[in-house]
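Ticket #4471: structure output looks truncated?

Reporter: J.K.
Steps to reproduce: submitted the chain below (127 residues) through the standard prediction queue, then opened the result file.
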Amino acid sequence: QVQLVESGGGLVQTGGSLRLSCTASGFTLDDYAVGWFRQVPGKQREAVSCISSGDGSKNYADSVKGRFAISRDSATNTLFLQMNSLKPEDTAVYLCARIDDHRCLALIASMAPNDYWGLGTQVTVSS
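Returned output as attached by the reporter:
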């Protein structure tokens, strides 16, 4: 059974850092495109960063380039998102997902029937 479980969210001040984790089970992270997305109530879901399958190309939304870093650990089958220089506008529920390479490379946040999504972890950045 495929599962994705996020952790690591919390409350942090502007300029602070957080490291999110997404533990995957039921499949091998290296074999699929996996990424981080964020959701604010009343707004469209936004793609934050993604690692494609195969060569592991990494993509970032313009809003987080230079501040966030995505990585994965094969030994623990875990996806990470290191978030530095956090801003109040980064406040959201952060979700990890297994999607297809096309939407990963294009940072498209729409959902498809073959996706798998976690339930998310709340990140709140205070000003």
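Triage note (M.O.): checked the attachment and the full token line is present. The CA atoms of residues 96 and 105 lie 15 Å apart.
Status: closed, working as intended.
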